[in-house]
Amino acid sequence: MPDYVIKATAGNGQIRVFAATTKEIAETARELHQTSPVVTQALGRLLTAGSLMGSMMKNDDELMTLKIAGDGPMSGLLVTADAHGNVKGYPYVSDLNDSMEAPMLVSEAIGEGSLNILKDIGLKEPYVGYSPLISGELAEDLTYYFAQSEQIPTSVSLGVLLNDDGTVRQAGGFIIQLLPDTTDDVIDSLEEALTKTPSLTKLLDQGNSLETIIANLFIDLNLKVSDQTSTRFVCDCSRQRITKALISIGKQDLVEMISDQEDIEINCDFCNKKYLFSPADLQAILNRIEEG
Ligand SMILES: [Zn+2]
Known about the structure:
Strand 1 and strand 2 (about 15-20) form a beta hairpin. The chain is built from ten helices and 13 strands. The strands form three sheets. The chain has a six-stranded mixed sheet with strand order 7-6-3-4-5-11, covered by helices on one side. It has a five-stranded antiparallel sheet with strand order 8-9-2-1-10, sandwiched between helices. It is an alpha+beta fold and about 290 residues long. The chain folds into two domains: about 5-235, Hsp33 domain, CATH 3.55.30.10; about 240-290, CBS domain Like (Alpha-Beta Complex), CATH 3.90.1280. It is globular and about 70 Å long. Helix content is about 35%, strand content about 30%. The longest helix has 20 residues, at about 35-55. It binds zinc ion. GO terms for molecular function: protein folding chaperone; unfolded protein binding.
């Protein structure tokens, strides 16, 4: 079943809700990057955050980059999302030699570090938000980010459940935000519901739909679903784009590459697709630059 995001409000408009199932996205990322279990979980969680936060963007042409940098063995992760449900991402290190039998925690793989959020909203300078990692499990770190950088009380949940063979069994998450005028009884009611509710991936695995899970969570809070949109892992790389990148490295470097008389292989970070350029291809690019 394709992944999707639900947007809703609750508590008479005092609460904003974004919820997503992202199993296909997380599994696609695992296949493309051949990740070991802990990396599959970390990348799946951040991609889920990308799907959710992409759906929160106000402008059609907005782009967001979520970047985690840490001193653990995975070093970090990078995810980008647009406002149309397209997400892509990659880990800095794909395979940590961990296994389903000897699981590693995401926070161990990431270590101490920071979360950077870059929003390109079409202005000259992108908006940049920053916060230190407080747990390294990502959901808590985003919760902290929203409180610190954007001053919005937020509850974030991100989960990836794996099969015994390390493939993705379930993935999903939600972001719940309180508007400034949220009354105490609504906050209390929400907190109680969140404490009582098992993890989203567990509920999905029991066969509950995302709609049912969210409806149950907000059973006393008058949930109103406003939108449901699809989300997916897409990489928009192409030979043309890579050629542009080669043009931008400049004449000098191209001349050197051609003189080596060997094929150049360029990997797309996001999807691992390989692009091969022969010395003749490179010469053609050089000719194009020289012709202006
Ligand atoms: Zn690509």
